[in-house]
Amino acid sequence: MGRSALDVSRLCEHLAGIDLGIATAVLATALGSDPISVGGLPEQRKRWLSRIADDGLLMAYGATEPQAGSDLAALKTTATPIEVEGRVTGYSITGAKQWISNGGVADLTSILALAPGGPSWFVVERDTAGFTHGKHEDKHGIRLSNTAALFLDDVVVDADCLVGGVEGQGLLQAQLVFGFTRLMVAAFGLGAGWAALERVIPYSMERIQAGGPLSEKQGYTHKLVVPHVVALEASRAAIEETAERIDTGEGALTTEGAIAKYLATEAGNAACDAAIQALGGYGYTHEYLVEKIRRDVRITTIYEGTSEIMEMTISRDRWQQHLKTRGDHYHDVATSLEALAGSRPDVGAGTAALAHHALAEVLEACRLARLTRNQHVLLRLGHLVALVEGAGALARRAGRAASGALPPKSRRCLEPAAVAAASRANARDVALAVATEGIRLVVAGGGVGSGELPRFEARVGLPAILAAQAGGLEDLDTIADHLYGRA
Ligand SMILES: Cc1cc2nc3c(=O)[nH]c(=O)nc-3n(C[C@H](O)[C@H](O)[C@H](O)COP(=O)(O)OP(=O)(O)OC[C@H]3O[C@@H](n4cnc5c(N)ncnc54)[C@H](O)[C@@H]3O)c2cc1C
Questions:
Q1: What residues contact residue 105 under an 8 Å CB cut-off, 6+ apart?
Q2: Catalytic site includes residue 304
Q3: pLDDT, tens digit, for every residue of 65-98?
Q4: CA-CA distance, 202 to 204, in Å (whole number)?
Q5: Exposed/middle/buried for 15, CB within 10 Å: 0-12, 13-18, 19+?
Q6: pLDDT, tens digit, for every residue of 397-445?
Q7: What's the pLDDT at 487?
Q8: Pocket test for ligand 1, best of 71, 97, 306, 378 (most atoms within 8 A of CB)
Q9: Is ligand 1 within 6 A of the CB of residue 63?
């Protein structure tokens, strides 16, 4: 507690590489205490945070309800003020919470409840009358993390258990910590994804098929290993860049946290799925742990905001930015990447710039044809935005790696030459995805007719993006050589 966002993300990555259930249980205490950290009065912080530190209290974070998941504002749990001689002395809380990590074991639980002034956080002690929990849920993965429903039946707490002492601050306080907490779940996806690949790499060096080890088969490494390392490293770049920005006081960075979570948890899931395939029949058994890691990592695209909610959050924010800057935002970021490419031509920044220009053109075509009225378009744009911002972050990271200016290494960091190759490979994939998927969305929504298509393809930069695919195979070979110690 109290460490930098970068430190905590590294800790989360490391814990998730050991066991995501343990990581979840640890994070639940951090999460439960977050409303107090950001919104608590000084005496509340002293009272509860020091008990967590001194006595090792476990906490839980009670936001989700049976009918209020992604849409937290629909919450039904109520906090009714208890007044004595016109003064509020306490609250009576009634309602139910669903899927609460540490719910059955926590000493203290932060409960989001609807007070007359609006949603508010209350801290509820374990043995308070009327406060009970359901059974430990029988889950697909993270089976050792306790998850339980909570029931509150006229649970009376003192008025000083209202976090911050003012009603109606709950959703704001939850928002304030999202940038940070989503970054931590992002690090879970990163750690679990790498944990699975770290089992695949040695396995494939020993497993002999068709006269040689699997690690020597390009069709194996370039499908089941290398692309996942590339996607995970793009997500690492987004995580660590966001963490460093939070640590230098740039604010909550909610959208950047959502981008990091989306990229890392999707990449972690894909990597773990590929790990089962990479171990063949052995991967499908309990004995070869990748099967467990695959079940565990599945939760990361669901809790702390689902991937679809991340897409919506990212898209809405960046759409506003596109409108506010009259379409210049991603062109401006592209210009800064072009400057980086000028001094470091080998770190993928030029291709990442093409991806940014393409995104700006796709967003503008969507604006002209008013396509974001379609929720599908809005969410797909969120996906493309995340990919593009990840490509920018990885190019900047590769630039820093090349000049020896990265933060201290994490256990799984690649060598600078491999980071550069990963950045080039990622930028190619992302530029192609944003151009082709973006053109497809615009055409599908009727934004561009078939007669105008060649001109639109040129505006998006499709020919240049196709030309930038040159050298792609060599880069995949380079990354594989680094991973297998052949570089
Ligand atoms: C193991 C586990 C641990 C958890 N721990 C905690 C915890 O400690 N504290 C806590 O408060 N919560 C916790 N949760 C709850 C978790 O955050 C929610 O499950 C999650 O936010 C999704 O809510 P939901 O399950 O109600 O799904 P829903 O919101 O019903 O979503 C179902 C599907 O619909 C999609 N969807 C939802 N809304 C939209 C929309 N507007 N547009 C398009 N698609 C949409 C979602 O992306 C998802 O795919 C935990 C959940 C699990 C499974």
A1: 58, 146
A2: yes
A3: 999 999 998 999 999 999 999 999 999 999 999 9
A4: 5
A5: buried
A6: 999 999 888 777 766 778 899 999 999 999 999 999 999 999 999 999 9
A7: 83
A8: 306
A9: yes
What average pLDDT does this structure show over 186-203?
A: 98
Residues 6+ apart with CB under 8 A from 242: 5, 179, 183, 253, 256, 257, 259, 260
SS3 assignment for 67-136:
CCCCCHHHCCCEEEEEEECCEEEEEEEEEEEEEEECCCCCCEEEEEEEECCEEEEEEEECCCCCEEECCC
**Which positions ≥6 away from 133 have C-beta within 8 Å?**
100, 103, 104, 148, 149, 150, 151
The one catalytic residue among 304, 311, 361, 389: 304
* CA–CA distance, 424 with 40 (Å, rounded to integer): 45
Rounded Cα gap, residues 421 and 366, in angstroms: 33
Among all chains, which residue has been given the structure tokens 């195979």? 473
pTM of the model: 0.97
Please tell me the distance from the alpha carbon of residue 96 to that of residue 80, in angstroms, as a whole number.
15
CA of 91 to the centre of ligand 1 (A): 27
Under a CB-based contact definition with an 8 Å cutoff, are residues 112 and 121 in contact?
A: yes
d(CA 300, CA 263): 11
Residue 162 carries which DSSP code? B
Residues contacting 325, CB < 8 A, separation 6+: 332
Whether residue 72 has its Cβ less than 6 Å from ligand 1: no
Ligand 1 atom nearest to 60, measured from its CA: 8
DSSP assignment of 382-450: HHHHHHHHHHHHHHHHHHHHHTT-PPSPPTTPPPHHHHHHHHHHHHHHHHHHHHHHHHHHHHHTTSS-G
Token reading at 91: 């609250």
The residue whose CA has the least distance to atom 27 of ligand 1 is 69
- Mutation test residue for ligand 1: of 59, 136, 303, the one with most atoms within 8 Å of CB: 303
**What's the farthest any 2 CA atoms get from each other in the chain?**
87
